[in-house]
Specification:
Rossmann fold; N-acetylglucosaminyldiphosphoundecaprenol N-acetyl-beta-D-mannosaminyltransferase activity; six-stranded parallel beta sheet; 192 residues; binds uridine-5'-diphosphate
Length: 192
């Protein structure tokens, strides 16, 4: 489908509903999928850091996560249909996981935030399989890598902030054919 390019990034031009329906198909067919939910800060950072820009351009979907991206699209007279946020996308993925008993791995945030997030996710989405989690303050990723490789989750939500989360995903996405999504501060919200 069509994209609209802003600051050298091809943003998907779909509604949230169309996007989630596309992701549902990716999950069903076990296709390895990398999602960057790009707010203006990420887009500008990528523009200023060519290596990170290249990495973001390898994503399967770059979504407009912020009103600033929508505004920019209107200014260049190629209006994007909708804002698609990391938090909303994560929520939809957790709902899909709950409905289909999918395996989910959560990576990131401070230990106490992650702990509360795990508790809340288990309560709100009791039928999904929360197969593993790790906080976002590690120096060695070996244990996390081994876990993900062994557990083969369908969805890996990475909340390390940018550019760490996108770098982690680009480096490790071949561990399993999952939906890999960088979700920024989403666990801070889910923990509340
Ligand atoms: N974080 C982390 N490890 C780090 C740095 C950040 O797990 O080394 C977490 C942090 O605790 C927070 C999230 O990543 O939960 C970053 O949230 P923020 O709102 O700053 O997201 P950004 O806008 O940077 O993507």
């Amino acid at each position: 489908s069509k994209t609209i390019t802003i600051l050298n990034l091809p943003f998907i031009n779909t509604t949230n509903q169309q996007f989630i329906s596309n992701l549902q198909k990716k999950i069903t067919t076990k296709q390895n999928t990398f999602i960057v939910t790009a707010n203006p800060e990420i887009a500008v950072y990528a523009y200023d850091h060519p290596q990170f820009q290249k990495l973001v351009q390898t994503a399967d979907y770059i979504t407009p996560d912020g009103i600033g991206i929508i505004k920019a699209s209107q200014i260049i007279q190629q209006p994007l249909k909708e804002r698609i946020t990391g938090f909303d996308t994560l929520t939809s993925l957790l709902e899909i996981a709950n409905n289909s008993s999918l395996k989910v791995y959560l990576l990131g945030a401070k230990p106490e935030v992650l702990q509360k997030t795990v508790k809340n996710v288990k309560k709100k989405y009791p039928k999904l399989q929360l197969v593993g989690s790790h906080d976002g303050y590690f120096s060695d990723d070996q244990e996390i890598v081994a876990d993900i490789k062994q557990l083969q989750p369908n969805i890996v939500a990475v909340a390390l902030g940018y550019p760490k989360q996108e770098e982690f995903i680009a480096q490790h996405r071949q561990l399993c054919p999952a939906i890999w999504i960088g979700v920024g501060g989403s666990f801070d919200v889910l923990s509340g």
